[in-house]
TrEMBL record:
Cofactor note: Binds 1 [4Fe-4S] cluster. The cluster is coordinated with 3 cysteines and an exchangeable S-adenosyl-L-methionine.
GO BP terms in the entry: rRNA base methylation; tRNA methylation
Pfam assignment, any one: RlmN_N
Necessary cofactors: [4Fe-4S] cluster
Keywords associated with the record: 4Fe-4S, Cytoplasm, Disulfide bond, Iron, Iron-sulfur, Metal-binding, Methyltransferase, rRNA processing, S-adenosyl-L-methionine, Transferase, tRNA processing
Protein name as catalogued: Dual-specificity RNA methyltransferase RlmN
Protein encoded by which gene: rlmN
Catalytic reaction annotation: adenosine(2503) in 23S rRNA + 2 reduced [2Fe-2S]-[ferredoxin] + 2 S-adenosyl-L-methionine = 2-methyladenosine(2503) in 23S rRNA + 5'-deoxyadenosine + L-methionine + 2 oxidized [2Fe-2S]-[ferredoxin] + S-adenosyl-L-homocysteine; adenosine(37) in tRNA + 2 reduced [2Fe-2S]-[ferredoxin] + 2 S-adenosyl-L-methionine = 2-methyladenosine(37) in tRNA + 5'-deoxyadenosine + L-methionine + 2 oxidized [2Fe-2S]-[ferredoxin] + S-adenosyl-L-homocysteine
MF (Gene Ontology): 4 iron, 4 sulfur cluster binding; metal ion binding; rRNA (adenine(2503)-C2-)-methyltransferase activity; rRNA binding; tRNA (adenine(37)-C2)-methyltransferase activity; tRNA binding
Length: 394
């Protein structure tokens, strides 16, 4: 697919490095955490709840980044807060806009690491694809992120900070007194489908999503948040109970033999165990369908027999099957299935009664599509050969 218009790419000037701040960042603290921090700083316990509410609204509803603007707080108190705390989101070091409107942000976090965040505008929604880790411990063989070693988990502040920096860029902090409904927003949905395995950073992701869903702040409905997992079975029930968002699962194969190769976590928890956990999810979380993501790899997992096995396996689970044409990246060991093959596969799935949208690759010209994310600056990446030998030996 050729870009219709030139790619715009503005390199944001990186400010001179200031001495590392001693002040505690309030972004990413839960309400309880914020309360504890305020009390620690000398806020009388009796006032703490009210102060949490006020500061929370300034940060998450109005997008304010300095204490001076918090006009419903006394001047002295604002000064005290400014001395002790900061309101900081990760820095955007590069922003690229695709011909199709997709925006990709290269985001720098503490320690100089980088992750990517992608904003995808559609007619009825705007979805932000956020990262939960720098790199990934897992090594799915078709995924670019999987070639990069896990550097560290993102903190809740760095996770929710991606939502905040996207809102900054979209100019979407509501006017005072106005908090538009989810469906009217530019950023109306979140998918945890960027870099990393969200369920290996469970606490960080949970706290950040709780902030995103908080009714006095960003206030996104839990049905507008989708967490994608490669299949960390023991954390699936917790996701239902402690986050309650929609779930997507990187299924990608219909036999353990093939799934072991594509999604190596399958060797730990196989298809049967995964399906058992998924069967319980909708009831536990009181949510609708589970999305089964299925990457279409030429001659690997794309036969009619695969399609038939797939619908048989998931029978009884309220499901949507999302077919993802493989997004190529330099050195990738697979090819995208042909369109006729994808259509034939989709047809079998559809006739079995499942919605089977084929995910249109977005932002391909800026390498923003699913599974293409990887920070070019990270060192310590493994080569394909290394991964292959680890897989063989694992
Ligand atoms: N770690 C999580 C979430 C991030 S990946 C997970 O694996 O689910 C988001 C989705 O993109 C997953 O379904 C993943 O399998 C898929 N994906 C990864 N690399 C891809 C590629 N090159 N082409 C298409 N989809 C890919
Ligand atoms: Fe990690 Fe998901 Fe990529 Fe697998 S597909 S390597 S779990 S980011």
């Amino acid at each position: 697919m050729q870009p219709a218009a030139p790619i715009t790419q503005d390199l944001v000037t990186i400010p001179r490095k200031l001495p590392q701040s001693e002040r505690q960042n309030l972004v990413g603290l839960t309400r309880d955490g914020l309360r504890a921090a305020l009390i620690e700083a000398g806020t009388p316990e009796k006032q703490a709840k009210m102060r949490v509410g006020q500061i929370w609204q300034w940060i998450y509803q109005k997008g304010v980044r300095d204490f001076e603007s918090m006009t419903n707080l006394a001047k002295d108190y604002r000064a005290l807060l400014a001395e002790r705390f900061e309101i900081a989101v990760p820095e955007v070091v590069q922003r690229q806009v695709s011909a199709d409107g997709t925006r990709k942000y290269l985001v720098r976090i503490a320690g100089g690491h980088e992750v990517e965040t992608v904003y995808i505008p559609e007619t009825d929604r705007g979805t932000l694809c956020i990262s939960s880790q720098v790199g990934c411990t897992l090594t799915c063989s078709f995924c670019h992120t999987g070639t990069q070693k896990l550097v560290r988990n993102l903190t809740p502040g760095e996770i929710i900070g991606q939502v905040m920096l996207a809102r900054d860029d979209l100019g979407e902090w509501p006017e005072p007194g106005r908090n538009p409904k989810n469906e009217q927003r530019l950023l109306s949905n979140i998918v945890l489908m960027g870099m990393g395995e969200p369920l290996y950073n469970f606490d960080g992701v949970r706290d950040a999503m709780q902030i995103a869903m908080d009714g006095e702040g960003i206030s996104l409905s839990r049905r507008r948040i989708t967490l994608s997992t490669s299949g960390v079975v023991p954390e699936i029930a917790r996701t239902a109970e402690e986050i309650g968002c929609l779930l997507a699962v990187s299924f990608h194969a219909t036999t353990d033999e093939v799934r072991d190769k594509l999604v190596p976590i399958n060797k730990r928890w196989n298809i049967t165990e995964l399906l058992d956990a998924l069967r319980a999810y909708p009831k536990l979380s009181n949510s609708e369908r589970i999305t089964f993501e299925y990457v279409m790899l030429k001659d690997v997992n794309d036969s009619d027999a695969d399609a038939r096995r797939l619908v048989k396996l998931i029978r009884g689970i309220p499901a949507k099957i999302n077919l993802i044409p493989f997004n190529e990246w330099p050195g990738a060991p697979y090819e995208r299935s042909d369109w006729e093959r994808i259509e034939a596969f989709a047809d079998i799935v559809y006739k079995a009664g499942y919605a089977s949208p084929v995910r249109t690759p977005r932002g391909e010209d800026i390498m923003a599509a699913c599974g293409q994310l990887k920070s070019a600056t990270e060192r310590g990446r493994r080569s394909r050969a290394q991964i292959a030998s680890e897989l063989g030996g694992g």
